[in-house]
Structure formats: C-alpha cells, structure tokens
Amino acid sequence: MHELKITMLGPSGVGKTSLLTAMYEQFESNIGKTNLQLTPDLDSSALLQERLAELKTLPDSFETKGWMQNTEDYKSFFFELGKKGAKPSLKLHFQDYPGEYLNSKSPREEKERVENFVNQSAAVIIAIDTPALMEKNGYWHDLINKPQMITNIFQRAYRDIDSPRLVIFAPVRCEKYLQNEQSISELINQIEIGYAKLLDDLKTELLLAKVAVVVTPVQTVGSVLFSRIEMNGNNPLFIFRKTSHDAKYNPKDSEQPLRYLLRFLLKLHLEKKNWGFFNVIRDLFGVDNHLKNAVREFAKGCKNNNGFAVLQGDIWLNID
Where does the Double-GTPase domain lie (predicted)? Predict the structure, then answer.
C-alpha cells in the first residue's frame, strides 16, 4: 500500500491529538454519500478512542495545561483510505512530535528527525493554541505556540524542495473567536501577525510557486468557550467553560484539514507531472476513477470564508 506522510506540528499540549481525533470522527460524519472510508490501524484507533472519550466528558469548567504538559515520545497515527468495502488504496501517516524535540537541550538526532519528516511530508498541519494567539494581543503566543521554532523547522526542511507542498494553519480551541465577522477577521489578522516570519519565508521566490498555505479553524469540541486566564506563579492557566451544563461534544469543521489535503493530492494527480514521492498519487488515481471521483466529491466541501482562507498557492487547490 502506498504511504503519504503528514506532519502534525506544534508544541506539546497545543491540541494536536485532539485535532486528529476530531478530524477522524468528523470525517465519518461528513463523507455523506461519497464512497470513501478512512480506517485507523489498531494502535491509532485505541489512542483516538481514549482522546474522544476525554473530549466527550469534559467538566463544566476546565483548564488546558497546554505547554505545561510534556509528551515523552513521538506518536505515529496511521489511517487507511479507500473505497467502502474494498482494500484500502492509500495509507496516510500522521506524525506527531513533542515540542521538546526542538529545545536546545534535546539530542541533535531528535531535531533532525523532525526536520526530515517535515521534508518528506506532503503536508504539514500547524496546530495553533488560539487563546494564546488572541488574548492580551498575543502576549502568550511566543511562549506557548513557539512560532520562531516552527519557522526554523521550515527554513531547514524546505530547502531545495522539488515538489509542491501544503501547509495548513489550524487554530484549535477557537470557538470564542468565530462568533462574528469582526472576531473572525481579527483571528486571520493575528495569524498573519503571529506567524509573519514563516509566511514571509513561504512567499519567497523559490517557495511561492510550490507551497500552498491555508487557514482552517477547527472547533475540536464546539460546545466550549475560552473564559479567562489565571496565573499559577509565572505560568498562565487557560480556563474554558461549556456553553451550558448539558452541552454535548459538538465539533465543527474538524474534517476541513483532511478535505484540503485530499483536494491538494487530487490536484497533483491532475497536473500529470513527475514529482518524486507524489508519483504514487498519479498512479493511484490514474487506475481508479471511482476513488478519484469520491475524493473529488469530498474535496468540494472545502470552505474558503468565515475564517477559512487560502493565503497562497490556490493554483495547487483548483480542481475545477
């Protein structure tokens, strides 16, 4: 089975595993009549089920410790994609790295592992802790989201890339900031400010023609809102609350990163060019029109307003 790599990027505790959980769960709810099936392997399924149970049983008010939580090791999540009832055609390998891998005290081989995987990935999904980006004019953004570290990874990993890539900025825990046009506009503006250096780098002459950049806000719970920041010594505690005592798990737009990913892969197939590891996509869709049509139908659901935006490289997302 052909395998494509996708990197989940962001410091520990930002919400990458919750994003993956909601992405998979909402894919199942949004595929509609398309003939697609996304199946996690046994280990991935067990991890995702644990996180899903946590998301569905949140207390009325809770604190996300975010950057204070440490992930001891990297995690691989494998999903098999194919037609319903048929042998899967493609394996999607999502790699999640703890932010500590890029700290100054971490071994060099850990830093190189992250860079190599980003270099080999069709797409990178950057999970953003949205309250850290938005509250107090982004006062906690550098500490929690570590944008300079993220930028440095791309500076090294995207040297001399020979094929198109997709970069997805995925604000999570963003429910509060999607309430009206003004807050939505401010969210996009703060992303452009908070990741200005990375966005500028991706717009340089050698990368502008190869890299598509999109913003896909993901409400991984949907029924919670950011409430306030409390201080624990010098550390901020981000407090969230449910919209009501009996509010249930209700994620929104969690499948959008996957829609954009499949749209991007379909576009690469339609280009019919020789691009290294993307040749598997050309061969795969070339011999299976039913799969190609199912992917096209699912990819048509990509949103591009109300907080969703293509910042560059729309040529790599145009499948009309």
Answer: 6-167
- Residue 121 pLDDT level (bands cut at 50, 70, 90): very high
Strand partners, 36: 83
Domains of the chain, CATH where assigned: 2-316 (3.40.50.300)
**What is d(CA 207, CA 161) in angstroms, rounded to the nearest whole number?**
8
User: Contact at 8 Å (CB) between 88 and 39?
Assistant: yes
Read off the pTM: 0.92
pLDDT grade for 102, boundaries at 50, 70 and 90: low
Three-class SS string for the chain?
Answer: CEEEEEEEECCCCCCHHHHHHHHHHHHHHHCCCCCEEEEECHHHHHHHHHHHHHHHCCCCEEEECHHHCCCCCCEEEEEEEEECCCCCCEEEEEEECCHHHHCCCCCHHHHHHHHHHHHHCCEEEEEEEHHHHHHHHHCCHHHHHCHHHHHHHHHHHCCCCCCCEEEEEEEECCHHHHCCHHHHHHHHHHHHHHCHHHHHHHCCHHHHCCEEEEECCEECCCCEEEEEEEEECCEEEEEEEECCCCCCCCCECCCHHHHHHHHHHHHHHHHCCCCHHHHHHHHHHHHCHHHHHHHHHHHCCCCCCCCCEEEECHHHCCCC
The pLDDT tens digits for 255-304 are 999 999 999 999 988 887 877 767 777 777 767 788 888 889 999 999 99
Where residue 186 falls among pLDDT bands split at 50, 70, 90? very high
d(CA 253, CA 83): 23
Mean pLDDT (the chain) is 86
Looking only at the bridges linking them, the beta strands covering 61-64 and 90-96 are unpaired
Measure Cα distances from 232 to 27, 70, 136, 141, 229 in Å.
38, 17, 17, 17, 10
Pairing of the two strands 224-232 and 309-312:
unpaired
